[in-house]
Amino acid sequence: MGVVIESSVWEPNASLFVFIFFSCLLSVFLLPYATKSSSPSPFQLGVSPSFLRFKRNFLLIYSLASVLGGIWSVFGEFEWSNYGVSREQMVLILVVGFGASLLVGTSLGVLSDIVGQRKMTLIFCLLHLFVGVWKRLTAHPSVWLASICLSVASSIFSYSFETWMVLEHEKQGHRQDLLSDTFWLMTFFESASLIGSQALANRLVRTGGKTHLASAFSATILLALISIIYKRIWLLAYAQASVHFSVSIVWILWAPTLVADGREVHLGLIYPCLLGARMLGTAIFPWVISGSSLRTEECLVYTFIISGLAVFIIAYDYQEIGVLVSLFCLFHACIGIILPSLARLRTMYVPNELRGGMISLSLAPANAAVLLFLLQGGYYRNVGNSAIMGLSAIGLFSSAACMHFLKRLGKQPYSNWHKL
Fold first, then answer.
1. 3-state SS assignment for residue 141
2. d(C-alpha 148, C-alpha 96), whole Å
3. Is residue 71 within 8 Å of residue 199, measured between CB atoms?
4. What pLDDT does 340 receive?
5. What does the pLDDT read at residue 326?
6. Measured between alpha carbons, how far is 256 from 374 in angstroms, rounded to an integer?
7. CA 14 to CA 239: how far, in whole Å?
8. Contact yes or no for 310/334 (Cβ under 8 A)
9. Residue 376's CB: how many other CB atoms inside 10 A?
10. Reduced to 3 states, what is the DSSP secondary structure of residue 30?
11. For residue 270, what are the contacts with CB-CB under 8 A and spacing of at least 6?
């Protein structure tokens, strides 16, 4: 006769979560009616629109950073056990991580006052991006190095974002008594973001296993990229990289696309048409800038969308040669408008001493992507031409979103490029 041992897993009552949620909700929305302080609450109309815009942008960046840090904390021993790490090794990994926080994190805190807090926040995002990409591409990543990078990133998070906010608050001339509102909102949004990161990570790894861990790593990569490009100079850099990638892919694949299925085409006469279309787009540019009420960013939104649609149709919809040539000409005409428009925006947003570095660094990932797809598509034949052109269309569509965000952030002279 067998003995059945019943086991139970204790869980908090669901009403506890409901109570906490509604308590927070009531506390926030009743604050304007209960406060007796002379300083205005963040919900009152007396607060300047520029301060509200500054606080909204900062809290968005801060929330994204909180989610990045929170996703990794969900895995813990579960991830390490998947890599075959023993309990003793786990303790040593934690020791190494806290040692890195003690030595490297403290040093970076002192260095941040010299090089600038904004650069430290960028390093925070790059560390998470590096760990996410590394774990996504490597079957057995080094948990030691990952622990060091994430520990250093955690140290940067603890001081750089707050210091950056205070410095920008003062530089933009906002009232000092408004800082307390941002302080409590930082902690409030951090807690909410951590809850969201737990829900997201648990959703991605709900059934366990390395495959679902890889999905969570992809989420951290996406969040890190969003955090990095949510700054004016990085929005422009991403758009420049997308343009370079799409132009390179179209230049490589336009001829194979036209002669597919054995169609006979006089390529020597078509190529000048493409260059002529690009020249026509460049000739239209001064008319658009001087004769239109649209801002350069707004004009680029539409131009990126049109060019992306042209490439997308070429990639996934079989057309006659005449239609394909027309779509290629439309794409090159859009490029003729996009290139001088991006140069104009760089003059507005990028300091001259950073211009060359910004352009070269933005071309580096585009060239790396072209190299990768040449190997995977042309040499190993693991990726089709349609998929490659489809990715370039996605890059153009996302560049349109970057220009929309750039417009929403508002025009700032390049002397204030470090601001949100």
1. coil
2. 7
3. no
4. 93
5. 93
6. 14
7. 46
8. yes
9. 14
10. coil
11. 258, 325, 328
Long-range contacts of residues 270-273, Cβ cutoff 8 Å, at least 24 apart: 270/325, 270/328, 273/325, 273/329
By C-alpha distance, which of 312, 331, 315 is closest to 260?
315
Q: How far apart are the first and last CA of the chain?
A: 71
Would you report the helix, strand and coil content of the chain in percent, each value rounded to 5? 80, 0, 20
Q: What is the CA radius of gyration of the chain?
A: 26
SS3 18: helix
* Residues shown for the chain: 420
Q: What is the DSSP letter of 139?
A: S
Residues 285 and 298: beta-carbon distance below 8 Å: no
Q: What is the pLDDT of residue 175?
A: 82
Domains of the chain: 47-229 (1.20.1250.20), 232-416 (1.20.1250.20)
Please list, in sequence order, all residues whose beta carbon lies within 8 angstroms of the beta carbon of residue 174, skipping any fewer than 6 positions away. Answer: 48, 50, 51, 54
314 vs 327: CA distance, rounded Å: 7
CB–CB of 321/258 below 8 Å? yes
**Which pLDDT does position 206 carry in this prediction?**
64
Q: How far apart are CA 383 and CA 20, in angstroms?
A: 49
CA angle 291/297/303 to nearest 5° reads 80
What are the average pLDDT values for consecutive 10-residue runs of the chain, which has 420 residues? 59 79 80 59 60 85 89 77 80 86 84 82 88 80 84 89 88 83 86 85 64 73 79 84 93 88 83 93 86 83 95 85 92 94 88 78 86 81 87 94 83 44
Q: CA–CA separation, 223 vs 206, rounded Å?
A: 20
Q: What is the pLDDT of residue 37?
A: 52
Note every long-range contact of 158-162, with CB atoms under 8 Å and residues 24 or more positions apart, other chains counting.
Answer: 159/109, 159/112, 160/112, 160/117, 160/120, 160/121, 160/124, 161/61, 161/62, 161/65, 161/117, 161/121, 161/186, 162/186
User: CA of 309: how far to CAs of 67, 240, 331, 385, in Å?
Assistant: 33, 18, 9, 16
